[in-house]
Design brief:
The chain has 17 helices and 22 strands. The protein has 494 residues and is α+β, with helices and mostly antiparallel strands. The strands form 6 sheets. Strands 13-12-9-10-11-14-21-19 form an 8-stranded antiparallel beta sheet, with helices on both faces. Strands 3-2-1-4-5 form a 5-stranded parallel beta sheet.
Protein backbone atom coordinates (compact mmCIF):
# COMPACT_ATOMS: atom_id res chain seq x y z
CA UNK A 1 0.00 0.00 0.00
CA UNK A 2 1.73 3.14 -1.28
CA UNK A 3 -0.98 5.83 -1.13
CA UNK A 4 -3.95 6.32 1.23
CA UNK A 5 -6.85 8.75 0.96
CA UNK A 6 -8.29 9.88 4.29
CA UNK A 7 -12.03 10.44 3.88
CA UNK A 8 -12.32 12.76 6.85
CA UNK A 9 -11.17 16.07 8.28
CA UNK A 10 -9.56 17.73 11.30
CA UNK A 11 -7.74 15.90 14.03
CA UNK A 12 -8.57 12.34 12.97
CA UNK A 13 -7.41 13.02 9.41
CA UNK A 14 -4.10 14.34 10.78
CA UNK A 15 -3.85 11.40 13.17
CA UNK A 16 -4.15 8.86 10.34
CA UNK A 17 -1.81 10.77 8.03
CA UNK A 18 0.97 10.96 10.61
CA UNK A 19 1.05 7.21 11.07
CA UNK A 20 0.85 6.69 7.30
CA UNK A 21 3.84 8.98 6.82
CA UNK A 22 5.77 7.06 9.49
CA UNK A 23 5.05 3.92 7.45
CA UNK A 24 6.34 5.52 4.24
CA UNK A 25 2.85 5.79 2.74
CA UNK A 26 1.75 8.85 0.72
CA UNK A 27 -1.50 10.55 1.76
CA UNK A 28 -4.36 12.33 0.02
CA UNK A 29 -6.65 14.76 1.82
CA UNK A 30 -10.15 15.63 0.72
CA UNK A 31 -11.63 18.85 2.02
CA UNK A 32 -14.64 21.12 1.86
CA UNK A 33 -14.44 24.79 0.97
CA UNK A 34 -14.63 25.58 4.71
CA UNK A 35 -11.51 23.49 5.42
CA UNK A 36 -9.30 24.77 2.61
CA UNK A 37 -6.68 26.12 5.04
CA UNK A 38 -6.92 23.34 7.62
CA UNK A 39 -3.74 21.63 8.92
CA UNK A 40 -4.75 18.22 7.54
CA UNK A 41 -4.90 19.71 4.04
CA UNK A 42 -1.40 21.17 4.34
CA UNK A 43 0.02 18.00 5.88
CA UNK A 44 -1.13 15.68 3.09
CA UNK A 45 0.99 15.00 0.03
CA UNK A 46 -1.99 15.84 -2.18
CA UNK A 47 -5.36 17.40 -1.48
CA UNK A 48 -8.60 17.85 -3.44
CA UNK A 49 -11.61 20.03 -2.69
CA UNK A 50 -14.78 17.94 -2.94
CA UNK A 51 -17.51 20.49 -2.39
CA UNK A 52 -19.16 23.23 -0.32
CA UNK A 53 -18.99 23.32 3.51
CA UNK A 54 -22.11 21.29 4.29
CA UNK A 55 -21.25 17.63 5.00
CA UNK A 56 -23.87 16.35 2.54
CA UNK A 57 -22.16 18.32 -0.20
CA UNK A 58 -18.60 17.26 0.69
CA UNK A 59 -17.57 14.65 3.27
CA UNK A 60 -20.67 12.51 2.69
CA UNK A 61 -20.19 12.38 -1.11
CA UNK A 62 -18.99 8.79 -1.32
CA UNK A 63 -18.97 8.60 -5.12
CA UNK A 64 -16.95 11.83 -5.39
CA UNK A 65 -14.42 10.58 -2.85
CA UNK A 66 -13.98 7.31 -4.76
CA UNK A 67 -13.64 9.27 -8.01
CA UNK A 68 -10.80 11.31 -6.49
CA UNK A 69 -9.15 8.14 -5.20
CA UNK A 70 -9.21 6.50 -8.63
CA UNK A 71 -7.91 9.62 -10.36
CA UNK A 72 -4.94 9.88 -8.00
CA UNK A 73 -4.10 6.17 -7.99
CA UNK A 74 -5.00 5.59 -4.33
CA UNK A 75 -4.54 2.07 -2.91
CA UNK A 76 -6.65 2.41 0.24
CA UNK A 77 -9.26 4.68 1.86
CA UNK A 78 -9.30 5.29 5.61
CA UNK A 79 -12.68 6.68 6.75
CA UNK A 80 -11.66 7.91 10.24
CA UNK A 81 -14.74 8.18 12.43
CA UNK A 82 -18.09 9.83 11.75
CA UNK A 83 -19.17 10.76 8.20
CA UNK A 84 -18.95 7.58 6.06
CA UNK A 85 -16.96 5.43 8.49
CA UNK A 86 -19.90 3.13 9.32
CA UNK A 87 -21.64 3.30 5.96
CA UNK A 88 -21.78 -0.21 4.49
CA UNK A 89 -22.73 1.10 1.04
CA UNK A 90 -19.62 3.29 0.96
CA UNK A 91 -17.35 0.45 2.05
CA UNK A 92 -18.85 -1.71 -0.70
CA UNK A 93 -18.43 1.06 -3.28
CA UNK A 94 -14.75 1.40 -2.35
CA UNK A 95 -14.17 -2.34 -2.77
CA UNK A 96 -16.11 -2.51 -6.05
CA UNK A 97 -13.71 0.07 -7.48
CA UNK A 98 -10.66 -2.01 -6.64
CA UNK A 99 -9.62 0.08 -3.63
CA UNK A 100 -8.98 -1.31 -0.16
CA UNK A 101 -11.35 -0.08 2.54
CA UNK A 102 -9.29 0.30 5.72
CA UNK A 103 -11.93 -1.08 8.02
CA UNK A 104 -14.30 -4.03 8.40
CA UNK A 105 -16.26 -5.72 5.64
CA UNK A 106 -19.50 -4.13 4.41
CA UNK A 107 -21.33 -7.17 5.81
CA UNK A 108 -19.95 -6.62 9.34
CA UNK A 109 -20.78 -2.91 9.17
CA UNK A 110 -24.33 -3.73 8.12
CA UNK A 111 -24.87 -6.32 10.87
CA UNK A 112 -23.50 -4.16 13.66
CA UNK A 113 -24.91 -0.91 12.28
CA UNK A 114 -28.40 -1.98 13.25
CA UNK A 115 -28.82 -2.54 16.98
CA UNK A 116 -31.41 -5.26 16.49
CA UNK A 117 -29.35 -7.33 14.06
CA UNK A 118 -26.28 -6.73 16.24
CA UNK A 119 -28.07 -8.17 19.27
CA UNK A 120 -29.32 -11.10 17.23
CA UNK A 121 -25.78 -11.91 16.06
CA UNK A 122 -24.23 -11.49 19.50
CA UNK A 123 -26.91 -13.59 21.20
CA UNK A 124 -25.70 -16.68 19.31
CA UNK A 125 -22.30 -16.30 21.01
CA UNK A 126 -23.60 -16.27 24.58
CA UNK A 127 -23.27 -12.51 25.15
CA UNK A 128 -25.23 -11.11 28.14
CA UNK A 129 -28.15 -8.92 27.02
CA UNK A 130 -30.38 -6.39 28.75
CA UNK A 131 -33.95 -7.80 28.74
CA UNK A 132 -35.98 -6.27 25.93
CA UNK A 133 -37.76 -6.69 22.59
CA UNK A 134 -36.64 -9.33 20.11
CA UNK A 135 -37.27 -7.05 17.16
CA UNK A 136 -38.59 -3.63 16.16
CA UNK A 137 -41.66 -2.35 17.97
CA UNK A 138 -44.16 -0.36 15.90
CA UNK A 139 -47.44 -0.50 17.84
CA UNK A 140 -48.10 1.23 21.15
CA UNK A 141 -50.21 -1.63 22.53
CA UNK A 142 -47.44 -4.11 21.71
CA UNK A 143 -45.00 -1.85 23.55
CA UNK A 144 -47.25 -1.67 26.62
CA UNK A 145 -47.52 -5.46 26.84
CA UNK A 146 -43.75 -5.89 26.61
CA UNK A 147 -43.08 -3.20 29.23
CA UNK A 148 -45.49 -4.86 31.62
CA UNK A 149 -43.36 -8.02 31.37
CA UNK A 150 -39.86 -6.51 31.70
CA UNK A 151 -40.93 -3.81 34.18
CA UNK A 152 -40.49 -0.03 34.33
CA UNK A 153 -38.46 2.06 33.78
CA UNK A 154 -37.71 1.15 30.16
CA UNK A 155 -35.58 2.66 27.42
CA UNK A 156 -36.93 3.26 23.92
CA UNK A 157 -34.04 3.34 21.41
CA UNK A 158 -33.65 3.89 17.71
CA UNK A 159 -32.59 0.73 15.93
CA UNK A 160 -30.26 2.67 13.61
CA UNK A 161 -27.70 5.29 14.55
CA UNK A 162 -26.52 6.50 17.93
CA UNK A 163 -25.35 9.63 19.70
CA UNK A 164 -28.41 9.66 21.95
CA UNK A 165 -30.83 10.40 19.11
CA UNK A 166 -34.15 8.53 19.13
CA UNK A 167 -33.70 7.58 22.78
CA UNK A 168 -36.32 8.02 25.52
CA UNK A 169 -36.58 6.84 29.13
CA UNK A 170 -40.15 5.88 30.10
CA UNK A 171 -41.11 5.67 33.77
CA UNK A 172 -44.69 4.38 33.49
CA UNK A 173 -47.37 3.16 31.08
CA UNK A 174 -48.92 6.61 30.78
CA UNK A 175 -45.79 7.93 29.04
CA UNK A 176 -45.40 5.12 26.50
CA UNK A 177 -47.45 6.50 23.62
CA UNK A 178 -46.02 10.02 23.61
CA UNK A 179 -42.38 8.99 24.14
CA UNK A 180 -42.58 6.21 21.56
CA UNK A 181 -43.91 8.60 18.89
CA UNK A 182 -41.15 11.10 19.77
CA UNK A 183 -38.43 8.46 19.55
CA UNK A 184 -39.75 7.19 16.19
CA UNK A 185 -39.95 10.71 14.77
CA UNK A 186 -36.46 11.64 15.92
CA UNK A 187 -35.00 8.38 14.60
CA UNK A 188 -36.64 8.89 11.22
CA UNK A 189 -35.33 12.44 11.00
CA UNK A 190 -31.78 11.56 12.10
CA UNK A 191 -31.25 8.20 10.40
CA UNK A 192 -34.00 7.82 7.82
CA UNK A 193 -35.26 4.82 9.78
CA UNK A 194 -38.02 5.13 12.40
CA UNK A 195 -37.59 1.61 13.81
CA UNK A 196 -37.27 1.46 17.60
CA UNK A 197 -36.85 -1.27 20.17
CA UNK A 198 -37.43 -1.42 23.91
CA UNK A 199 -35.19 -2.70 26.68
CA UNK A 200 -35.06 -2.59 30.47
CA UNK A 201 -33.55 0.68 31.69
CA UNK A 202 -30.46 0.11 33.84
CA UNK A 203 -30.74 2.99 36.27
CA UNK A 204 -27.17 3.63 37.48
CA UNK A 205 -24.96 2.03 34.85
CA UNK A 206 -21.35 2.53 33.92
CA UNK A 207 -20.56 2.73 30.21
CA UNK A 208 -17.54 0.56 29.49
CA UNK A 209 -16.22 -0.30 26.06
CA UNK A 210 -13.62 -2.77 24.86
CA UNK A 211 -11.20 -2.23 21.99
CA UNK A 212 -10.75 -5.22 19.68
CA UNK A 213 -8.58 -5.96 16.65
CA UNK A 214 -9.24 -8.67 14.10
CA UNK A 215 -7.27 -9.81 11.06
CA UNK A 216 -8.22 -11.64 7.88
CA UNK A 217 -7.20 -15.00 9.35
CA UNK A 218 -9.75 -15.28 12.14
CA UNK A 219 -7.53 -13.89 14.91
CA UNK A 220 -9.27 -11.42 17.25
CA UNK A 221 -7.78 -9.89 20.41
CA UNK A 222 -8.97 -7.35 22.97
CA UNK A 223 -6.84 -4.39 24.07
CA UNK A 224 -8.59 -3.91 27.41
CA UNK A 225 -11.36 -1.52 28.25
CA UNK A 226 -12.14 2.18 28.42
CA UNK A 227 -14.31 3.87 31.03
CA UNK A 228 -16.71 6.22 29.23
CA UNK A 229 -19.37 7.01 31.85
CA UNK A 230 -18.83 10.79 32.04
CA UNK A 231 -21.33 11.97 29.43
CA UNK A 232 -23.62 14.85 28.62
CA UNK A 233 -26.64 14.29 26.40
CA UNK A 234 -25.45 10.68 25.90
CA UNK A 235 -22.17 11.97 24.43
CA UNK A 236 -18.85 11.13 26.09
CA UNK A 237 -16.73 14.01 27.41
CA UNK A 238 -14.13 12.30 29.65
CA UNK A 239 -12.73 8.83 29.02
CA UNK A 240 -10.05 6.79 30.75
CA UNK A 241 -8.31 3.46 30.47
CA UNK A 242 -8.46 1.13 32.21
CA UNK A 243 -11.71 1.27 34.20
CA UNK A 244 -11.09 1.47 37.93
CA UNK A 245 -14.25 -0.44 38.84
CA UNK A 246 -13.37 -3.78 37.21
CA UNK A 247 -11.64 -6.63 38.98
CA UNK A 248 -9.02 -8.60 36.99
CA UNK A 249 -11.58 -11.41 36.63
CA UNK A 250 -14.26 -9.06 35.28
CA UNK A 251 -11.71 -7.38 32.99
CA UNK A 252 -10.90 -10.75 31.45
CA UNK A 253 -14.57 -11.76 31.19
CA UNK A 254 -15.70 -8.54 29.48
CA UNK A 255 -12.69 -8.66 27.13
CA UNK A 256 -13.45 -12.23 26.10
CA UNK A 257 -17.12 -11.32 25.59
CA UNK A 258 -16.04 -8.49 23.26
CA UNK A 259 -13.96 -10.95 21.24
CA UNK A 260 -17.01 -13.23 20.87
CA UNK A 261 -19.03 -10.27 19.59
CA UNK A 262 -16.30 -9.72 17.00
CA UNK A 263 -16.43 -13.38 15.99
CA UNK A 264 -20.22 -13.15 15.59
CA UNK A 265 -19.70 -10.98 12.50
CA UNK A 266 -16.23 -12.21 11.43
CA UNK A 267 -14.82 -8.82 12.33
CA UNK A 268 -11.74 -7.41 10.58
CA UNK A 269 -9.83 -4.30 11.70
CA UNK A 270 -10.29 -2.07 14.73
CA UNK A 271 -13.67 -2.07 16.44
CA UNK A 272 -15.22 -1.26 19.79
CA UNK A 273 -17.77 -3.28 21.72
CA UNK A 274 -19.81 -1.26 24.20
CA UNK A 275 -21.33 -2.60 27.43
CA UNK A 276 -23.51 -1.34 30.27
CA UNK A 277 -22.21 -2.39 33.68
CA UNK A 278 -24.51 -2.32 36.70
CA UNK A 279 -23.65 -1.78 40.37
CA UNK A 280 -23.00 -5.51 40.87
CA UNK A 281 -20.55 -5.45 37.90
CA UNK A 282 -22.91 -7.47 35.71
CA UNK A 283 -22.29 -6.41 32.12
CA UNK A 284 -24.69 -6.30 29.16
CA UNK A 285 -23.97 -5.88 25.45
CA UNK A 286 -25.00 -2.45 24.19
CA UNK A 287 -23.69 -2.08 20.63
CA UNK A 288 -20.61 -2.31 18.45
CA UNK A 289 -18.91 0.58 16.67
CA UNK A 290 -17.29 -0.65 13.47
CA UNK A 291 -14.60 2.02 13.28
CA UNK A 292 -11.85 3.74 15.16
CA UNK A 293 -13.22 5.49 18.25
CA UNK A 294 -12.65 9.12 19.17
CA UNK A 295 -11.14 7.95 22.45
CA UNK A 296 -8.70 5.42 20.96
CA UNK A 297 -5.61 7.35 22.21
CA UNK A 298 -6.11 6.20 25.81
CA UNK A 299 -5.90 2.58 24.66
CA UNK A 300 -2.74 3.36 22.72
CA UNK A 301 -1.21 4.91 25.82
CA UNK A 302 -1.77 1.91 28.11
CA UNK A 303 -0.83 -0.77 25.56
CA UNK A 304 1.85 0.95 23.45
CA UNK A 305 0.04 -0.19 20.29
CA UNK A 306 -0.59 2.23 17.40
CA UNK A 307 -4.14 1.34 16.37
CA UNK A 308 -3.98 3.15 13.03
CA UNK A 309 -0.81 1.28 12.10
CA UNK A 310 -2.56 -1.99 12.98
CA UNK A 311 -5.58 -0.99 10.87
CA UNK A 312 -3.36 -0.39 7.85
CA UNK A 313 -1.37 -3.59 8.36
CA UNK A 314 -4.56 -5.64 8.63
CA UNK A 315 -6.04 -3.96 5.54
CA UNK A 316 -3.02 -4.95 3.46
CA UNK A 317 -3.39 -8.57 4.48
CA UNK A 318 -0.96 -8.95 7.35
CA UNK A 319 -1.60 -11.18 10.34
CA UNK A 320 -1.75 -9.68 13.81
CA UNK A 321 1.84 -9.51 15.02
CA UNK A 322 0.87 -10.28 18.62
CA UNK A 323 -1.38 -12.67 20.54
CA UNK A 324 -3.67 -11.95 23.49
CA UNK A 325 -1.03 -12.93 26.04
CA UNK A 326 1.38 -10.40 24.52
CA UNK A 327 -0.85 -7.41 25.27
CA UNK A 328 0.18 -5.69 28.48
CA UNK A 329 -1.75 -3.09 30.46
CA UNK A 330 0.69 -0.52 31.82
CA UNK A 331 -0.24 2.70 33.62
CA UNK A 332 -3.36 4.83 33.28
CA UNK A 333 -4.59 7.29 30.65
CA UNK A 334 -7.20 10.06 30.60
CA UNK A 335 -8.85 11.91 27.71
CA UNK A 336 -10.80 15.15 27.84
CA UNK A 337 -12.71 16.12 24.72
CA UNK A 338 -12.20 19.86 24.35
CA UNK A 339 -15.31 21.18 22.63
CA UNK A 340 -16.14 24.66 21.37
CA UNK A 341 -19.20 24.63 23.61
CA UNK A 342 -20.46 26.83 26.41
CA UNK A 343 -20.84 24.72 29.58
CA UNK A 344 -22.49 27.73 31.22
CA UNK A 345 -25.29 27.59 28.64
CA UNK A 346 -26.31 23.94 28.34
CA UNK A 347 -23.21 23.10 26.29
CA UNK A 348 -24.43 25.01 23.25
CA UNK A 349 -21.87 25.01 20.40
CA UNK A 350 -19.83 28.17 20.01
CA UNK A 351 -18.19 29.50 16.88
CA UNK A 352 -15.58 32.15 16.35
CA UNK A 353 -11.91 32.76 15.80
CA UNK A 354 -9.18 31.16 17.88
CA UNK A 355 -7.59 34.47 18.78
CA UNK A 356 -5.10 32.74 21.02
CA UNK A 357 -4.36 29.02 20.93
CA UNK A 358 -1.47 27.40 22.77
CA UNK A 359 -1.34 23.68 23.50
CA UNK A 360 0.02 22.23 26.74
CA UNK A 361 3.27 20.29 26.77
CA UNK A 362 5.28 18.19 29.18
CA UNK A 363 5.66 14.55 30.28
CA UNK A 364 2.67 12.34 29.68
CA UNK A 365 0.70 14.93 27.67
CA UNK A 366 -0.69 14.33 24.17
CA UNK A 367 -2.91 16.67 22.13
CA UNK A 368 -4.71 15.45 19.01
CA UNK A 369 -6.20 18.45 17.23
CA UNK A 370 -6.86 19.96 13.83
CA UNK A 371 -6.74 23.69 14.54
CA UNK A 372 -4.18 26.48 14.79
CA UNK A 373 -4.18 29.98 16.22
CA UNK A 374 -6.13 32.36 14.00
CA UNK A 375 -8.41 29.71 12.53
CA UNK A 376 -12.18 29.92 12.81
CA UNK A 377 -14.27 27.13 14.33
CA UNK A 378 -16.78 26.30 11.56
CA UNK A 379 -20.47 25.91 12.23
CA UNK A 380 -20.87 22.97 9.85
CA UNK A 381 -19.20 20.16 11.81
CA UNK A 382 -18.74 18.62 15.24
CA UNK A 383 -17.49 21.38 17.59
CA UNK A 384 -14.57 19.39 19.03
CA UNK A 385 -11.36 21.44 19.06
CA UNK A 386 -9.04 18.78 20.41
CA UNK A 387 -8.56 15.63 22.43
CA UNK A 388 -6.40 16.30 25.47
CA UNK A 389 -4.79 13.06 26.64
CA UNK A 390 -2.57 12.39 29.65
CA UNK A 391 -0.74 9.30 30.85
CA UNK A 392 0.67 8.36 34.24
CA UNK A 393 1.98 5.38 36.16
CA UNK A 394 -1.41 5.28 37.93
CA UNK A 395 -4.80 7.01 37.92
CA UNK A 396 -3.74 9.71 40.37
CA UNK A 397 -0.78 10.76 38.25
CA UNK A 398 -2.88 10.77 35.06
CA UNK A 399 -5.44 13.05 36.75
CA UNK A 400 -2.76 15.41 38.10
CA UNK A 401 -1.15 15.67 34.67
CA UNK A 402 -4.54 16.38 33.12
CA UNK A 403 -5.16 19.20 35.61
CA UNK A 404 -1.73 20.64 34.83
CA UNK A 405 -2.43 20.38 31.10
CA UNK A 406 -5.83 22.07 31.46
CA UNK A 407 -4.25 24.97 33.34
CA UNK A 408 -1.58 25.48 30.66
CA UNK A 409 -3.97 25.11 27.68
CA UNK A 410 -4.75 28.58 26.27
CA UNK A 411 -7.90 28.98 24.16
CA UNK A 412 -9.24 32.50 23.65
CA UNK A 413 -11.97 33.45 21.20
CA UNK A 414 -14.49 30.66 21.73
CA UNK A 415 -16.18 29.22 24.76
CA UNK A 416 -14.84 25.77 25.54
CA UNK A 417 -15.10 22.85 27.94
CA UNK A 418 -11.69 23.07 29.63
CA UNK A 419 -13.22 24.54 32.78
CA UNK A 420 -15.85 21.79 32.78
CA UNK A 421 -13.07 19.21 32.51
CA UNK A 422 -11.45 20.66 35.62
CA UNK A 423 -14.80 20.46 37.43
CA UNK A 424 -15.11 16.75 36.59
CA UNK A 425 -11.55 15.78 37.47
CA UNK A 426 -11.64 17.50 40.87
CA UNK A 427 -15.10 16.27 41.89
CA UNK A 428 -14.95 13.88 44.87
CA UNK A 429 -17.17 11.30 43.11
CA UNK A 430 -14.83 11.18 40.12
CA UNK A 431 -11.68 11.06 42.20
CA UNK A 432 -13.09 8.20 44.30
CA UNK A 433 -14.45 6.36 41.20
CA UNK A 434 -18.00 6.56 42.59
CA UNK A 435 -19.74 7.69 39.40
CA UNK A 436 -21.94 6.41 36.60
CA UNK A 437 -23.54 7.78 33.44
CA UNK A 438 -25.73 10.08 35.57
CA UNK A 439 -22.72 11.98 36.92
CA UNK A 440 -23.36 15.22 34.99
CA UNK A 441 -27.10 15.29 35.70
CA UNK A 442 -26.54 14.64 39.40
CA UNK A 443 -23.57 16.88 40.08
CA UNK A 444 -23.19 19.62 37.52
CA UNK A 445 -24.73 23.07 37.66
CA UNK A 446 -23.48 25.91 35.41
CA UNK A 447 -23.14 28.31 38.33
CA UNK A 448 -20.43 26.04 39.76
CA UNK A 449 -18.17 27.24 36.93
CA UNK A 450 -18.53 30.96 37.69
CA UNK A 451 -15.08 32.61 37.84
CA UNK A 452 -14.10 34.16 41.16
CA UNK A 453 -13.63 37.46 39.35
CA UNK A 454 -16.05 37.89 36.41
CA UNK A 455 -13.87 40.62 34.97
CA UNK A 456 -10.88 38.34 34.52
CA UNK A 457 -12.27 36.51 31.49
CA UNK A 458 -13.25 39.71 29.70
CA UNK A 459 -9.84 41.28 30.37
CA UNK A 460 -8.06 38.19 29.04
CA UNK A 461 -10.15 38.26 25.87
CA UNK A 462 -9.33 41.96 25.26
CA UNK A 463 -5.60 41.36 25.73
CA UNK A 464 -5.65 38.31 23.45
CA UNK A 465 -7.51 40.25 20.75
CA UNK A 466 -4.88 43.01 20.89
CA UNK A 467 -1.98 40.54 20.70
CA UNK A 468 -3.57 38.71 17.76
CA UNK A 469 -4.01 41.99 15.86
CA UNK A 470 -0.38 42.92 16.50
CA UNK A 471 0.77 39.50 15.31
CA UNK A 472 -1.19 39.86 12.06
CA UNK A 473 0.31 43.28 11.39
CA UNK A 474 3.88 42.05 11.82
CA UNK A 475 3.59 38.76 9.92
CA UNK A 476 5.59 38.58 6.68
CA UNK A 477 4.57 36.27 3.84
CA UNK A 478 7.07 33.54 3.02
CA UNK A 479 7.24 31.87 -0.38
CA UNK A 480 9.11 28.82 -1.57
CA UNK A 481 12.04 28.88 -3.91
CA UNK A 482 9.85 28.05 -6.91
CA UNK A 483 10.80 30.48 -9.67
CA UNK A 484 7.15 31.03 -10.61
CA UNK A 485 6.25 31.96 -7.06
CA UNK A 486 3.92 28.94 -6.76
CA UNK A 487 4.85 26.31 -4.20
CA UNK A 488 4.57 22.57 -4.79
CA UNK A 489 2.08 22.50 -1.93
CA UNK A 490 -0.26 24.80 -3.86
CA UNK A 491 0.15 22.86 -7.10
CA UNK A 492 -0.97 19.62 -5.44
CA UNK A 493 -4.15 21.17 -4.01
CA UNK A 494 -7.02 21.31 -6.44
Amino acid sequence: MKKILVANRGEIALRVMRTARDMGIKTVAVFSEADRNSPHVRFADEAVCIGPPASKDSYLRGEKIVEVAKTLGVDGIHPGYGFLSENAAFAKLVEENGITFIGPTPEAIEIMGDKLSAKEAAKKFDIPMVPGSEGAITEVEEAKKLCAVIGYPVLIKASAGGGGKGMRVVENEGEIEEQMHRAQSEALSAFGDGSVFIEKYVGSPKHIEVQILGDNYGNIVYLHERECSIQRRHQKVVEEAPSSCLTPEKRKAIGEAAVRVGKSCAYIGAGTVEFLVDEALNFYFLEMNTRLQVEHPVTEMITGIDLVREQINIARGEKLSFAQEDIQLIGHAMELRVYAEDPMNNFLPDIGQLKQYKKPEGPGVRVDDGFEEGMTIPIYYDPMIAKLVTYGKDREEAINRMLRAIDSYTIVGVRNTLIFGRFVLTHPDFVSCKFDTNFVNKNFKPELLQPSNPGEEEAAAIIADFLFSEKKNTTTAVTSGNKNGVSNWVKNRT
